[in-house]
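PROTOCOL LOG
Step 1. Enter all chains and additional molecules of the complex.
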Amino acid sequence: MSVIAQKNPRINVTVVDINEKRIAAWNIEDLDQLPIYEPGLAEVVKEARGRNLFFSTEVDKAIAEAEMIFISVNTPTKTYGMGKGMAADLKFIELCARQIARVSTTDKIVVEKSTLPVRTAEALKNIMDNTGNGVNYQILSNPEFLAEGTAIEDLHHPDRILIGGDIDTEEGRDAMQALVEVYASWVPKEQILTTNVWSSELSKLTANAFLAQRVSSINAMSEICEQTGADVSEVARAVGMDSRIGPKFLKASVGFGGSCFQKDILNLVYIAKSYGLNEVADYWEQVIIMNDHQKRRFAANIVRTLFNTVSGKKIALLGWAFKKDTNDTRESAAIYVADYLLNEQAEIVVYDPKVTEEQIYTDLDNLGTRSKEEHRKMVTVINDPYQVCKGTHAIAVLTEWDEFKLLDWEVVYNKMLKPAFLFDGRRMLNREQKVKIGFKYYEIGN
Ligand code: UDX
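Step 2. Run joint prediction.
Step 3. Record the structure below.
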């Protein structure tokens, strides 16, 4: 929404949330302290905030005044009842729809920004038409394709903008056109696609499923590479040079994380199952199964290599975020690797340049595997990449932060117990150099 405000100075954008603390954080004076770390975001907020971008807790007022309302609430995987562990929880979406219906006295265009199951727009319209004050609603689907860490760049130069709406009626087409105009301020018109609303909703899930599938595909090959002596980077390069396949998203890793891939695939699996499409469901579920396997086998390899036991051994984890340049840790592979090693009674020390100690403990506590006290006893967070390696038996690199490449690895080596094991879950360090220093070096896919 900040970029929409930045690029459309004549449109007033008000971001509302009932959470006062969160809104206060977005209104904070010091832009370095914004609640989300994202390169370039502070500059965008600086330009637009107070001009035509506002953060407020006055939800009803903002709804009443708006012509267009974007719903951008969480749609986490359900943790209870029907569809538990798979379906998207639409509780917050429905609450939004009811609030909009209660407050609105003028016609509104309601835009689904959150990633939603197919046909959610229908449910939204149903709720609003039946509980509202007789005003007209047009529901649009406008999924967001930005990736974290490159969000501002992705928003400024999107591959495409997708807008789904009721293409069969004039009101529907007008509403879509109104949203097209918002984006047309900076996106070339030929990159703005308009489709029917169901295609738009499904395209978002499909895009994430395809991307995650590529990562699982290359990760599956990484295991074959380790067994056969092939090198997964060489395989990825050779395969990616086929213009039909393309080079992106072929980087083998300790497993994908983030707030979208797993959630959206589980949602897709649930949708397929609910239509009785069991083969389709199984096909996509395999992407998650492969990803879980990758995280597990990375951790298991650490245990095996350290002479089949890590009990009482100190292991440093470099990186906790699910990828570099973000402080987001949702579904991060690091959480699951740590959990595995803690089950093996390892002592864990963690360093991440952007993730707070509080967040790391919260992630572990949320697993429900062991008590909070145990986590605070077995896991230490240290804010220095050299200190964290002191006296460790092994290091596991779990996030591809650039600064890990630039560490003085001789210094690191000298601080560790010998033999010093280094497990590169991101294939980001130079093997030859590390072996020369003396490390026992293992990387995914080699
Ligand atoms: C993803 C989609 O890319 C984006 O379009 C959508 O809007 C939201 O979900 P994001 O989760 O921010 O974005 O990160 P992304 O860059 O896609 O990476 C997801 C995970 O896959 C990360 O853990 C990353 O490290 C991993 N990954 C990605 C790989 O392991 N190998 C790759 O080649 C690419």
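Step 4. Note key features.
The mean pLDDT is 96.
The longest strand covers residues 108-112.
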